[in-house]
Amino acid sequence: MSNARQNPYVGPRTFTREEGERFFGRESEARDLLARVISERLVLFYAQSGAGKSSLLNTRLIPQLQASGFGVLPVGRVSGALPGGGNPADNIFVFNLLLSLDQSRGDPQRFSGMTLSHFLARLTSPDGEQYHYQAEHEAETGEYESAPSVLIIDQFEEIVTTHLEYWPQRADFFRQLDQAMAADPLLWVVLTLREDYIAALEPYAYLLTDKLRARFSMQRMDYEAALEAIEQPARLGGRPFAPGVAQMLVDNLRQLRSQTPLSPPAAGGSSLPATGDSGGQPSAVGGPGLGQYVEPVQLQVVCYQLWQNLTAKDPPNLTGLEDLSGFPPQITAADLATLGNVDTALAEFYEGTLRQTLAWFNQHSTPPPTPPRSGRGVRISPLSVADALRAGGGGPGGE
User: Fold this and answer.
1) What pLDDT band is residue 287 in, cutting at 50, 70 and 90?
2) Which of 151, 155, 173, 276 could form a disulfide with 283 if both were Cys (CB 3.0 to 4.6 A apart)?
3) For strand 149-153 and strand 132-133, is the pairing parallel, antiparallel, or unpaired?
4) Three-state DSSP class for 48?
5) Looking at domain 26-218, does it have CATH number 3.40.190.10?
6) Quick check: 275 pLDDT over 50?
7) Is the CA virtual torsion 247, 224, 232, 307 positive or negative?
């Protein structure tokens, strides 16, 4: 990272593939998930919201699958708007998936009555990166690419959280998915979703040949993983943490916040916790008020803000790492106490997200007329709000 002013932390959003060098703390999960996906044609990958599922897909699983000889289709979604033109889709979930996989920007209406098997047989790619639906292309029976392909459907909980009025079409979606895998023996599938929606999928498991048997669960970050995710980007940025300081930050992030009010410290005070029973020294074990895991989104929010505060104090003529020679070369405990307050950073993040949500509502909603009449205004769904937050970087990116 050549620019000392570039923040090595991505903040509260999903990592992109290009940011893989800044993604730390998940190598064990990446290795195990890759092995699971290679060995099973359909894998259910789940974790808590904000655990970093999408980031793991972008920075590790997809590149590693490609390096292992798999073709990886564009990451799909089953959510989206209804087709326009008064021509409803036969299956809204299949329709949205096809629309997310095709990168040709053609007329969406052509997918309204199309099955998943029909579409995949005509999905082509000249380079393994860009995929386009070609109506004239049809693979002959038994004619498949020599390399297997992987279909990843991210945020798959949307099949039960969106388009609720079309709930009867869910079963047909699972049937079509099973039919597509039967038609193409070289098709692999990965479904990623929040773990609190696992039970909602169970009624549909019988529609799939493997009954959703192969599953992979990812926990939130433990102490060592969080420590790596904090320390390594700072090293890349040319301003590492002083000994013991990153450990203090991990313990501060592990504080059970239900027991610690979200309020800034008193003037001149420190937000660093007295950890465990080790005389205030950071500890990898538990202690009073310390949880087992760290929320990755909170980690990124706090570290991003800390780095922003540090660089704001730099001289205006600082342009590169070579200019850091006259600086304290490390992030100190004093920096953490004055510029890296966890509660303040999180409170500012939550307040900013609320402001962004309110601004989105003000922009996309229409005040009712006087007197009120039906048929006016814009229907707003939780999905559209979430997508707006992700686009603006104000949310966890559907992790």
Assistant:
1) low
2) 276
3) unpaired
4) coil
5) no
6) no
7) negative
252 phi/psi in degrees, rounded to 5: -65, -40
Closest CA to 176 of 186, 189, 163: 189
Q: What percent of the chain has a predicted confidence (pLDDT) above 90?
A: 55
Dihedral angle computed from the Cα positions of residues 345, 351, 352 and 358, in that order, rounded to the nearest 10 degrees: 170
Which stretches of 120-168 are assigned E, i.e. beta strand?
Answer: 123-124, 132-133, 149-153
CA–CA separation, 78 and 97 (whole Å):
5
- Determine the Cα–Cα distance for residues 276 and 311; give it in Å rounded to an integer: 32
Are 259 and 289 contacting, i.e. CB atoms less than 8 angstroms apart?
Answer: yes
Residue 61 in tokens: 């699983």
- Give the DSSP H or E segment for 200: helix 198-201
Give the Å distances, CA to CA, from 141 to 41, 93, 125, 144, 177: 20, 26, 19, 8, 18
Quick one: which of 239, 388, 254, 244 has its CA closest to 308? 239
Taking only the tens place, the pLDDT of each residue in 258-274 is 433 333 333 334 444 44
- The C-alpha atoms of residue 279 and residue 273 are separated, in whole angstroms, by 11
User: What does the pLDDT read at residue 354?
Assistant: 79
Query: Following CA atoms 171, 174, 175, 176 in sequence, which dihedral angle do they give, to the nearest 10 degrees?
Result: 120
* pTM (predicted TM-score): 0.78
**CA 170 from centroid of its chain's CA atoms:** 24
Q: Which residue has the higher pLDDT, 214 or 367?
A: 214
| Exposed / middle / buried, residue 267 (Cβ in 10 Å: 0-12, 13-18, 19+) | exposed
Mean pLDDT over all residues of the chain? 81
Residue for token digits 């301003």? 239
Position 397, amino acid: G
So where are the chain's domains?
Answer: 26-218, 223-349
3-state secondary structure of 45: strand
143's tokens: 């004619």
Residue bearing tokens 């079509």: 176
What's the full length of the chain, in residues? Answer: 399
- pLDDT tens by residue, 304-358: 999 988 888 776 665 554 455 555 578 999 999 888 777 777 777 777 667 777 7
Using CA atoms, how far apart are residues 158 and 192, in angstroms rounded to an integer? Answer: 10
